[in-house]
Amino acid sequence: MALLTKTQIDSADDRKWEDVDVPEWGGEVRILGMSGTERNAYQSSLVVMGTNGAPQRVNLTDQLAKLLSKSMVDENFERLYTDREVKELGKKNGAVLERLSAVAQRLSGLRKEDVEAAAGKSAAAQSGASTSD
User: Fold this and answer.
1) How many Cβ atoms sit within 10 Å of the Cβ of residue 109?
2) Strand, helix or coil at 56?
3) What is residue 106's three-state secondary structure?
4) Residue 130: how many CB atoms within 10 A of its CB?
5) Who's near 68: CB < 8 A, 6+ residues apart?
6) What is the pLDDT of residues 85-107, one digit of tens each?
7) Are 60 and 46 in contact (CB under 8 A)?
8) Percent of the chain scored above 90 by pLDDT?
9) How many domains does the chain have?
10) Is 48 a domain residue?
């Protein structure tokens, strides 16, 4: 298989999405797997740093709404909720948020089995010569 160029990587449409029926809300919502930047921001929002700069504790406040605010999009793939609107989204039915979050986690590779599978793949030995120091 040929090595990809930066242009090929940049132009690849690699983000998965899924329309999910939400009868409680009277329609469907589109869930888009998060980009790497969005995923990092989401994960960082769950960590409270101590005064020494080390992680102090996990902050689970509105974790489902935080995830969904970065994952729910309209038909043009624009976010429905901004980071400032997380609390508003968090007021919705918890069971619905949990159900939609499961889809967002799957599409974004956040489930435990996704993380474990990725770790297993990255443990493979390098093949060929390396020119990096």
Assistant:
1) 16
2) strand
3) helix
4) 7
5) 31, 81, 89, 97, 100, 101, 104
6) 999 999 999 999 999 999 999 99
7) yes
8) 66
9) 1
10) yes
